[in-house]
Amino acid sequence: MSEVINKEMIQEEVEIPKLTILYQDEYFVAIDKPAGLLVHRSFLDKHETQFAMQMLRDQIGQHVYPVHRLDRPTSGVLLFALSSESARKMNEIFIAHQVQKRYLALVRGFAPEHRLLDKPLKEQLDKIADKHANQDKPAQSAITDFKCLKQASLDIPFGKYPSIRYSLVECYPKTGRKHQIRRHLNHLTHPIIGDVNHGDNRHNHFFREHFELRRLMLFATNLSFKHPYTDVQINIEASLGEEVLSIFKQLNWSDSELDYRQK
After folding, report:
1. pLDDT in tens, 202-239
2. Domain presence at residue 10
3. Tens digits of per-residue pLDDT, 140-179?
4. Domain carrying residue 85
5. CATH code at position 31
6. Which long-range contacts (C-beta less than 8 Å, at least 24 apart) are formed by 209-216?
7. Model confidence pLDDT, tens digit, residues 55-97
8. Residue 150 lies in a domain
9. Could you tell me which residues come within 8 angstroms of residue 247 by beta carbon, excluding any fewer than 6 positions away?
10. What total of structural domains would you count in the chain?
């Protein structure tokens, strides 16, 4: 009996999770990247075994070319090209700032109703990966348009404050600097919940304990551009997911995806 079971175990295939495809045509494919998934292999994360690029390649059976990136802890729309030529065309569109990217971020405090922040950012270099890069490179232009969509207050004392406040902020980066949205919101004293590099770790700890969710609360919800081959305006949208919507419900906000779509 044990011999039969062992044979079955050997023959059993390991199930690889599938990525959610949001858009696909003969030139491009977009996925809903989960939080925590790397876009591609990196020597800085040698222990990782799953990467969006390789997973998508295996899933659709053809090579894919990344045309932009999302930080590992950020979830949402991630676009790939299906050929080197379409990757080149899409890269040109990104360089010309003809792609609109929309993010939603859950932040600490009551954010201002609207703020267009023009604050140059000095490139953040990795000690290992960027050890040969220019360490004295001047700060680069960085512009982000912020709009506060919702506010919530929990009657829970925190430090010297009688309550804990949160805001849901709509973010439109006009430039593409590393960690731009995260750094800009931290500059405005409204760091993103779950941001261990640019956030408030005391609030991050409370959020994990109170809501039982450990992740960066930043979501790439929309990617819009004019298709370089068809001239059709494309808008690719990713959902927030049930876990996030359940937290919004606890903040007395709507738990319907429809209420968080781009207006």
Report:
1. 999 999 999 999 999 999 999 999 999 999 999 999 99
2. no
3. 999 999 999 999 999 999 888 899 999 999 999 999 999 9
4. 17-125+137-260
5. 3.30.2350.10
6. 210/156, 211/247, 211/250, 213/243, 213/244, 213/247, 215/35, 215/36, 215/73, 215/75, 216/35, 216/71, 216/73, 216/74, 216/192
7. 999 999 999 999 999 999 999 999 999 999 999 999 999 999 9
8. yes
9. 106, 211, 213
10. 1
**End-to-end Cα distance, the chain:** 62
Q: Which two tokens stand for residue 90?
A: 């899409």
> 260 and 169 in contact (C-beta within 8 Å)?
no
Asked whether residue 130 is assigned to any structural domain, the reply reads no
Residue 256 lies in a domain: yes
Which residue out of 25, 32, 45, 71 is catalytically annotated?
71
| Sign of the CA dihedral running 63, 20, 216, 87 | positive
Q: Catalytic residue at 71?
A: yes
pLDDT at 41 over 70: no
